[in-house]
Design a protein that fits this description.
mainly beta, 6-stranded mixed barrel, two-stranded antiparallel ribbon
Length: about 110
């Protein structure tokens, strides 16, 4: 479950955030229920960054990052992928996240806790 705080506007690197639907469906049927392996694709609330950006931000396996947008700060786990372009990030959004537009420009900062 992502952690959300209001008012943590610490500076970070700027990225273009694309949101994905919480659950992919076809005519109301959840695809994860009928397509083998679909449940394993993209964890809810997991941010996907390019391998190049992961190196730039010194992200390691099981790292978490803070995404800051419009006065909100959301802490989410992150994973690197060679399928994502540098400067762009993808998030499988949950209904409790504050993002209302896609794409949107956000600040991304490694969580050092």
């Amino acid at each position: 479950m992502p952690h959300t705080d209001k008012g943590n506007d610490a500076e970070g690197d700027t990225f273009l955030l694309y949101l994905k639907a919480e659950q992919e469906t076809y005519r109301g049927v959840p695809l994860a229920d009928v397509v083998p392996g679909m449940k394993m694709l993209g964890n809810r609330g997991c941010l996907v960054v390019s391998s190049e950006d992961a190196q730039k931000l010194s992200l390691k396996r099981h790292s978490t990052v803070n995404i800051t947008w419009n006065g909100f700060c959301v802490q989410v786990p992150v994973k690197a992928s060679s399928m994502v372009n540098p400067g762009v990030i993808h998030l499988k959004a949950a209904s409790d996240m504050p993002f209302t537009v896609s794409p949107c420009t956000v600040q991304l900062r490694r969580n050092d806790e």
